[in-house]
TrEMBL record:
Residues 41-188 form the Thioredoxin domain. It holds the Pfam family TPR_16. It comes from Oryzomonas japonica. GO terms for biological process: response to stress. This is Redoxin domain-containing protein. SMART domains: TPR (SM00028).
Length: 377
């Protein structure tokens, strides 16, 4: 091999390594504690407020648009087929129950920057489906991240105080019917048959401590104190699972894998089918070389919730470690279909290619991750 080719190859490898290091460091500053449908919230907690523009240009907040009894927040995209199904179903529910206290607000999350072409596609969808409820645009994806969306479309039903009463991720067939039944039963005065599926309602003091932990994480400088707040939340309500998940993620970012594994184990002891605890535990097993055990946990996680994106790219990463490239790429493709805005799927794809000694493919995956974060086009 000529000196020039060797130099070019070495430079390419250095760039790939630099991108990998960038994401390792970047990951230390990102934190996404999670629940099954939303990453940081669950039923019984208050959804964040919003201030977004309608497609027509007017700025609107929850107070302007809320229903007297329930408000359906549907976060959707033009590039997802299930979003259209959800939009159409919400139109039917809106027409049927708008005079009984129901409001519907669709929030488009097509991307970080909404171009004129994007707006044209959004307007076209609204006109084609003949939607008569408000359609807002989440330019910058601030509300997308505030909610902690993990798949599109996502439906969040709140009461007039913005307290979450029901969540649905990905619009699966059975889940869509249960969601519609919940709306019907709630507005017609009947007791919904699925209320038992909503899960544990945490104590108010535990919620307060948990939210303090989330807020300190966002501050950056005070991130370390979030550990104390999450522990206080657990003390205030030992059955509250989210603080364990948050602590586990916090310890992972800090490099304390044993402590992280213990927190995920605690979460699974309280909620054995918690998809995030299952997936994160599986990843720890993969990193430790215990591939069969990790694969078993992932299978359990996907049975519990087939719309949780990280399960798919963790599985892709694991298949790559097992030298099963076709299965690996299929899992990464599935993750991208569910949520192409999750940059981590490209990071894990890059890590897989690095492990396979494929620097060009690794660099391409890392670049895609960077473009997803920074929206470099």
């Amino acid at each position: 091999m000529s000196r020039k080719k060797v130099a070019t190859r070495d430079l390419f490898l250095k760039k790939t390594a630099l991108l990998a290091t960038l994401f390792t460091v970047y990951g230390m500053f990102l934190f996404t504690p999670a629940a099954a449908t939303l990453q940081q919230l669950q039923s019984g907690m208050e959804a964040p407020d919003f201030s977004l523009h309608q497609v027509s240009g007017e700025k609107r907040s929850f107070a302007n648009l809320k229903g007297e009894k329930l408000t359906i927040l549907l976060v959707w995209s033009t590039w997802d087929k299930k979003s259209e199904q959800a939009l159409a179903r919400m139109q039917k529910l809106y027409l049927k129950y708008r005079d009984q206290g129901l409001a519907v607000v669709a929030i488009n999350a097509d991307g970080q920057k909404i171009s004129d072409a994007d707006l044209a596609r959004i307007r076209s969808t609204v006109e084609r489906l003949k939607l008569t409820y408000p359609v807002l645009v989440d330019n910058g994806l601030d509300y997308f991240h505030d909610l902690g969306i993990i798949a599109l479309p996502t439906t969040v039903i709140v009461d007039k105080e913005r307290v979450i009463r029901y969540e649905l991720s990905g619009y699966p067939l059975v889940g869509a019917e249960e969601m519609a039944d919940f709306v019907t039963a709630s507005l017609e005065g009947a007791k919904p048959a699925i209320v038992a599926k909503k899960g544990h309602q945490p104590a108010k003091s535990a919620l307060r401590f948990y939210n303090m932990g989330r807020n300190t994480l966002k501050s950056g400088r005070m991130a370390e104190s979030s550990e104390m707040w999450f522990k206080k939340a657990i003390e205030a309500d030992p059955t509250f699972v989210l603080p364990h998940i948050s602590l586990g993620k916090f310890y992972l970012q800090r490099g304390d894998k044993a402590l992280a594994e213990a927190q995920f184990r605690e979460a699974l002891g309280k909620e054995p089918t918690h998809v995030i605890a299952l997936c994160e535990s599986a990843l720890l097993l993969f990193e430790d070389g215990r591939l069969a055990e990790g694969q078993s946990l992932l299978e359990s996680a996907l049975k519990a919730d087939e719309s949780y994106t990280p399960c798919y790219y963790y599985a892709g990463f694991a298949y790559g470690k097992q030298d099963k490239p076709e299965q690996a790429l299929r899992m990464f493709d599935e993750a991208e279909k569910i949520n192409p805005l999750d940059y981590n799927l490209y990071v894990y794809k890059g890590r897989m290619f690095e492990g396979q000694k494929k620097p060009r493919e690794a660099a391409a995956a890392y670049r895609k991750a960077l473009e997803t974060i920074l929206q470099i086009h």
